[in-house]
Design goal:
It is built from 14 helices and six strands. The chain is mainly α and 347 residues long.
Length: 347
């Protein structure tokens, strides 16, 4: 039953561009999908290791900038008289470079930041994101600063002389984001269900006890950070080559807040939580806008709904639905023996 529902849901998602004629709605779905990928990566840290990273947008921005720079090519003076240049590379290679660069940044931050815990870890991650934003803003020779990197090429696959698939139009980008989201979901699921994932959950539940039985704290936390950063970098690369312009605003703190909202309201520590939370709070602003409500009222409704979800469903939407379904199943299974017992008594 579960696999049938999953297959039906995927078929529905893949069918949307076939009957959805409104390109603006497709654009909203693409942007929502990109942030769902980023939220899933944050959930690996927040939900499965219990570490709150409020600088997660830094990995998203690193993926966007590195992918854009490799695809466009650049020349920059590292030292006086020393020019480092790179010719433009294929976009697929540039996106891989963005993923790798974000993953390496996650490894470095993990090695440094996990020497501290709690509020100190949050401060380190926020500081890292702000430093990266200031570098992107002030290193004008490389990043163009506030003028932004523009004319970023879209992804193209295939052999130009034979056939070529261009991800320039919105339906093609929708399918690209959907495939990457599914791959990210599968990677996170396999990691969570592996021995490493069980060690991460043990560290979240009781770190001293996990350490006492031989779980290497630094190793598994750094692994989670590196994988989460790489996936967030992939989301950033998708964003850059879809929007085709990147500026330092990609590091804004509001993007991290958006990811946290998606994870917490959907259900942290669950695979489907960021997806459900992302769909609701990614599409909600556009739904409110369709009713021609004033912008101020839209944000008030957005905030009130988020507060209500957190207040009445403190574990998130997905855990609440799972508990409701389990109680319903228990009642159904419990009713069958009762009827059988009555029938036996009558006989």
């Amino acid at each position: 039953m579960k696999h049938a529902l999953t297959a039906a849901w995927l078929l529905f998602l893949f069918s949307i561009p076939l009957w959805m004629g409104d390109l603006y709605i497709l654009h909203v779905l693409i942007m929502t999908g990109i942030f769902i990928i980023a939220a899933m990566s944050l959930n690996l840290l927040l939900g499965y290791t219990g570490q709150l990273s409020l600088g997660h947008v830094a990995f998203f921005g690193i993926g966007a900038y590195v992918s854009s720079l490799v695809a466009l090519g650049f020349g920059v003076h590292i030292l006086p008289g020393t020019l480092v240049s790179l010719e433009p590379k294929p976009v697929w290679l540039a996106m891989l470079c963005g993923v790798v660069a974000a993953g390496l940044a996650g490894w470095v931050i993990g090695r440094v930041a996990f020497r501290v815990r709690g509020a100190y870890f949050v401060i380190v991650t926020i500081s890292f994101a702000e430093v990266i934003r200031l570098v992107a803003l002030n290193w004008v020779e490389l990043t163009q600063g506030p003028m932004a990197l523009n004319n970023i090429p879209p992804l193209r696959l295939g052999a130009p002389a034979l056939f070529e698939i261009s991800f320039l139009r919105k339906p093609a980008n929708y399918y690209l984001v959907l495939v990457v989201a599914v791959l990210a979901y599968v990677v996170i699921k396999r990691l969570v269900n592996s021995q490493a994932g069980r060690a991460m959950i043990a560290l979240r539940e009781n770190e001293p006890l996990a350490t006492s039985i031989g779980v290497d704290v630094t190793r598994y936390l750094v692994l989670a950070t590196m994988v989460a950063a790489a996936i967030a970098g992939g989301a950033g690369a998708l964003y850059a080559h879809y929007v085709r312009i990147v500026d330092p605003d990609v590091f804004l703190f509001i993007y991290t807040v958006t990811m946290v909202i998606m994870v917490v309201t959907g259900g942290k520590g669950t695979l489907a939580g960021p997806v459900v939370g992302g769909i609701i709070f990614g599409l909600l602003p556009e739904t409110l806008r369709a009713f021609e409500i004033a912008p101020e009222v839209q944000w008030i409704v957005y905030g009130v709904l988020m507060i209500l979800v957190v207040y009445f469903l403190p574990e998130g939407i997905v855990p609440a639905l799972r508990d409701w379904w389990q109680k319903r199943q228990d009642k159904t299974l419990g009713a069958v023996p009762a009827r059988s017992g009555v029938e036996e008594t009558v006989r």
